Amino acid sequence: MAGPNLEIFKFGLYLFVPIWAMLQFGDPQWYHENVTPYRERLFPSEDRTKQSIPTEHSGIKDEIARFRAEKAERRRLREEAEESARQ
């Protein structure tokens, strides 16, 4: 069995860790510097999102064609960038 010194150490640790976490991560400046940019990457702004979802078959086909064209364009640009990096 451990002595009272271990119990005092554990009690101090149990108190210290939550207080340290609150002081470190509860600062509003830290939140605005670290959390807000990540949130904006996860949840795009309203102007970058599609507001109306197509419900008809033709509308869905048009959206899929648009997605595929955008993906092909990104792939073409990436391949061009890789070729220019090789040269």
TrEMBL record:
Membrane topology designation: Single-pass membrane protein
Signal peptide: 1-21
Species annotation: Pterulicium gracile
Family: Belongs to the PET100 family.
Keywords of this entry: Coiled coil, Membrane, Mitochondrion, Signal, Transit peptide, Transmembrane, Transmembrane helix
Pfam families according to UniProt: Pet100
Superkingdom as given in the UniProt entry: Eukaryota
Main localization of the protein described in the UniProt heading: membrane
Location(s), subcellular: Membrane; Mitochondrion membrane
GO molecular function: unfolded protein binding
GO biological process: mitochondrial respiratory chain complex IV assembly
GO cellular component: mitochondrial inner membrane
Protein name in UniProt: Protein PET100, mitochondrial
Residue ranges that the Swiss-Prot or TrEMBL entry lists as coiled coil: 60-87
TM ranges: none
